[in-house]
Amino acid sequence: MRYDGDTDGKSTNGGIGDGIFNDPCCSDDALSVAACTKDPIYVRDSVVVLMAGATPYIGMYNDDGTYRGSSTVDVTGGAKTVYAYVSGRYNGYLQSGSTISITLDNCKLNTDAEFVVPNTSSKGFSIAPIPLSEDTSTTSDFGVVTITATNPEDPSEMVTQRTFGCLDND
Questions:
Q1: Going residue by residue through the chain (170 aa), what tens digit of pLDDT does each one get?
Q2: Which of 120, 121, 117, 124 has its CA nearest to residue 97?
Q3: Which residues have CB under 8 Å from 153's CB, separation 6+?
């Protein structure tokens, strides 16, 4: 609504928005004693629109940030941490509630085995640290670590997995 120049301070457009507002601010009594301004008031709102990727993408990286792909991690000389960078197609966060889970059949995982993507409007992607060490409860020297990212919209269809080997000295 907008002030139309009339002395009654009322709008002439019946409330159909043009972004300028002044009607309920002034009663007829207040207008009669010049207690109200006739300056327009701009009313504004904003919305954050997020474009979350539906299909998860997973990149595996070393401590120093170098891409590691699916190469084997050797923890015979001590614990190591690898990182799963999980995002949508254009490196944004996955939809809120997406899960990143880690399973393994050798080596010991020294963190939670599942992460949930938070509800955020931040730029970036999820980073899941995967700290691994020797697993003394198995007799195997080699196993596979699997990272699974699942979108909650359709968990049967929107799943991505990456695997890499883990070598320890059992």
A1: 334 444 444 544 454 544 444 455 667 777 777 777 666 666 678 887 777 777 889 999 998 889 998 899 999 989 999 999 999 888 888 888 999 999 998 899 999 999 999 988 888 899 999 999 999 888 889 999 999 999 888 767 778 999 999 999 86
A2: 117
A3: 54, 95
Question: What is the side-by-side strand order in the sheet with 108-109?
Answer: 57-61, 80-87, 126-133, 108-109
Specify the pTM.
0.69
Secondary structure of the chain in HEC code, one letter for each residue: CCECCCCCCCECCCCCCCCEECCCCCCHHHHHCCCCCCCCEECCCCCCCCCCECCCEEEEECCCCCECCCCCEECCCCCEEEEEEEECCCCCCECCCCEEEEEECCCEECCCCEEECCCCCCCCCEEEEEEEECCCCCCCCEEEEEEEEECCCCCCCCEEEEEEEEECCC
Positive or negative, the Cα torsion across 13, 18, 22, 24? positive
Determine the Cα–Cα distance for residues 63 and 127; give it in Å rounded to an integer: 12
